[in-house]
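[stage:ingest] chain + small molecule (norvaline)
[stage:ingest] validated
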Amino acid sequence: MRHFLKETDFSRAEVAEIFALARDLKRKRGQRLQLLAGQTWAMIFAKSSTRTRVSFEVAIHELGGNPLFLNTNDIQIGRGETIADTAKVLSRFVHGLIVRTYAQSDLEQLAAHGGLPVINALTDYLHPCQIYADAFTAAEHWAGPKGDLLASLKGRKIAFLGDTRFNMANSWILGASLFGMKVALAGPKGYEPGATVRSEAMKIGAEFDFTTDPYEAVAGADIVYTDVWTSMGQEKEAAARKRKLLPYQVNGKLFAAAKKDALFMHCLPAHAGEEVTQQVLDNPRCIIFDEAENRLHMQKAILAVLTRSSAP
Ligand code: CP
Ligand code: NVA
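[stage:predict] done
[stage:export] tokens:
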């Protein structure tokens, strides 16, 4: 049984295939494909979502399947039914699970007990579907309609600014080397990458640079990337985070310190005036809405490769 819980659950060869498939499925958007015909996929979400929820629901529908959205407050897991029992029960009804939750270990438990494919739709630790779509979006930009997508990322530098201790930063730490990229992170003391991601990076030979100087991180960068300062679940820390993370705001001056043709990317939702200024969001090299659109095509490609690999 295959799962997509973290970036490295697919090999580099599979990533090349997933990217090619996403490009192909994007071109075929109008056609009704039947890759998930007769399948129902449950989407268990413990946090809010716009892009991930809608892109998965539309993707499953357009692949001929049926998405079943389950807010954790509405199912018994919200009243204490165990993750293991929930997984065992759902596996009697549906063909796969797409899960947005807090702890990565909850996701791992679902995968261990469910007997059906599980996809990570964001945890506190990682957001792998997002960075697959992000890397694909940059590759599409650089490779053009026919070029080799993965090859276009080779040696490219991404600078990640802000909260370098949470899901998006962790995903870039684990994902960049898979895509052939280099990652430099900049954030304040106390927000550096944590022990878990450091040891996981070491295991897979993924290297990254961390600095407290945002200008050092963006020097020579092909992509400048940021994320919200207050992630879901951190609302009580919002005021302190605003104070600490302000020097890492992506403004016109910082963006101009990257390569001349650098792209600005953000997983969204964005808070203009906090982690990024409106001026940068309005820059023609800001590709956030292509990034958001590509979530749809990427979800389809991930589903297609995962279900093919999960077939008995
Ligand atoms: N980028 C992203 O995952 O957005 P949502 O929280 O809206 O799904
Ligand atoms: N770091 C953000 C990402 C949202 C897509 C959060 O977890 O809220």
